[in-house]
Structure formats: C-alpha cells, structure tokens
Design goal:
The protein is of the alpha+beta class. It has a domain of about 160 residues: Rod shape-determining protein MreC, domain 1 (Thrombin, subunit H, Beta Barrel), CATH 2.40.10. The chain has five helices and twelve strands. The strands form two sheets. A six-stranded antiparallel β-barrel has the order 1-2-5-4-3-12. The protein is rod-shaped and about 140 Å long.
Length: about 300
C-alpha cells in the first residue's frame, strides 16, 4: 500500500536535503549588496593607501605593511641573533676546550721533562759523590750497578753487574759513601750476589765510635740490625754511631755502619737495635772493596 508520508520523508526535495550549499548560496544572494559594499570599501582603502603619503613621502601602504610585518621581522631577527650568539659561544667553548686539552698535554710533557731532568741531576749527584769517595778512599774500589733485588718485602740480597770477568771473588766488602752495604757471597761470570747487613745470617765486626766498645752487628730483617755482645754496664745511647772494627777481616776499619735506634738491658748483654747508615732499600750504585787494598789497609791498622 502506498504511503504518502513515507514518500515525503525520502523525497529529494525535502527541506533537510536543501541544507548546506544551497543555504549558503541563499545567504550570499540575500546579502549581496553588503558584500559588494565591503569589497568596494576595501578597494578604495587600498587605493587611498597607495596615494596618501606621510612623513618623508612614505606611502601609507608601506607604513601599514611595516606595521603588520614588523613583529614577525623582530621575532625573526631575535631568533637569528640568538642562533648566531649560541653558535659563536659554542665555537668559543670548543676552541677553549681544545686549547685546554693542548695545554694539559704540554703541561704533562713539561712535568715529564722536569722529572727526567731532576732524575738526571740526582743521578749525577750520586755519581759525583761516588767518584769523590772513590778518589779519596785509602783502598782500591770498583763501581757496580744494582741489577736485581731479592724478592719479598724485606729484601736482604742484591745482584750487581760485576763478576769473575772483573776479578771479583766471595767475601769482598760492598759499600757506599753513606755506609756499609754487605759482602759478596756468590760470584758468577758477569754478576755477583751480595748479602746485605740486614740479613739474619750476616755478621760484621763493629764498634761504637764514641766509646770504642766492640761487638758484632747481625741482621734483624725489616731493614734493621742488632748490635750483639755489648755488656749491660757499657754506656750506650740512642743516636750513637756504629762503625766497622775490621776484626772480621772483610770490612776496612772505620766505615760507617749505622746509628743506635733503641737500647735495652738483657740478662748479660744489652739489646741494641741499629738502623743502617746506607739506604739499603733504594740502592742503585755501590762500590766493591778489592781484597789487596783491604788487606793493606788492615795491616796499617
């Protein structure tokens, strides 16, 4: 059955289907005079702006254009200036960082060179003292370099770079200008092993320089020695110098051995701790006392 109402609802001529473009066209058609008037006024305004001039013969259109675009121009200029400043600042910081890196390298190189110069100066001073001592020594000596220390925290032996190829033999005294180091215990073709006076098996005939009280210096380890066989009634004080007595027939008489560090009474003999005069833990160059000169020196005494 035909439904007129339904046909009216779906008809393309219904009011709802005419909404949209047709409504807009109807609005423009009904207000056409207003739009035309507005367009004419804008055209007149633009023509007047081209014709009217202000101060210094500047046209009004240019003033308006400047007024419109000036904020954008200022913003763009600000962004450009900020970018330029940031780039220059970054460039300056980068150059400063490069200069700092170069200066640090130069400083490290200079410090290394100064350290080498100081080391050369110290070595020259050690050699000068060694040569001066050798020149004024009453016995013949031979210089030797330290090439190895015995392993362990408390090293009690060293290896020197002279051996049988230089005529060295066991039981030769090894000294420095500062004091006694030890004696040669083993000799090889081009090296020799030296037992330091701090070794427990070492023994050196010594005496107190001030009182001439004699005894035997033995190694106590830990870079220290002990002065044995001194009676309790003998006067011994910390700071007293200990020198060689030559009774062991190895070390010439009167060589500095060490300084008394501690003194205590025992049952019969005093307990005396001696610090070696030579820096046994930092040796670099030593002198070996040759046997012939040692025997002549002991014979004179």
């Amino acid at each position: 059955m035909h439904d007129p109402q339904h046909q009216e609802m779906v008809s393309p001529d219904s009011p709802h289907s005419r909404e949209g473009p047709e409504v807009m066209q109807a609005f423009v058609a009904s207000h056409r005079p207003f739009f035309v008037l507005t367009a004419v006024l804008l055209a007149q305004l633009l023509l007047l702006s081209f014709q009217i001039t202000r101060n210094h013969n500047v046209r009004l259109i240019k003033i308006w254009t400047l007024a419109v675009f000036d904020p954008f121009e200022r913003s763009l200029k600000g962004i450009t200036d900020s970018t330029t400043w940031a780039w220059r600042t970054y460039g300056g910081l980068w150059r400063a960082q490069q200069e700092n890196r170069d200066l640090r390298r130069e400083l490290a190189t200079t410090r290394s060179q100064l350290q080498q110069v100081a080391e050369y100066a110290a070595e020259s001073e050690r050699l000068r003292q060694l040569l001066d001592f050798k020149a004024h020594s009453p016995y013949q000596t031979m210089a030797a370099e330290i090439i190895a220390f015995s392993p362990g925290a408390s090293s009690n032996a060293i290896l020197i770079d002279k051996g049988t190829d230089y005529g060295l033999t066991p039981d030769l005294a090894v000294i420095t200008p500062a004091g006694v180091v030890g004696k040669i215990v083993s000799v090889f073709h081009n090296s020799s092993q030296v037992m330091l006076i701090t070794d427990p098996s070492s023994g050196v005939g010594t005496m107190l320089e001030r009182s001439r009280t004699q005894g035997v210096l033995k190694g106590a380890g830990n870079n220290l020695c002990q002065f044995d066989y001194v009676m309790n009634e003998e006067l011994v004080s910390p700071g007293d110098a200990v020198v060689t007595s030559s009774l062991d027939q190895i070390y010439p008489k009167g060589l500095p051995v060490g300084t008394v560090l501690k003194v205590g009474d025992g049952n019969i003999y005093k307990t005396i701790v001696v610090r070696p005069a030579a820096k046994l833990d930092s040796l670099e160059t030593v002198l070996v006392v040759l046997r012939g000169s040692t025997e002549q020196e002991m014979a004179r005494h």
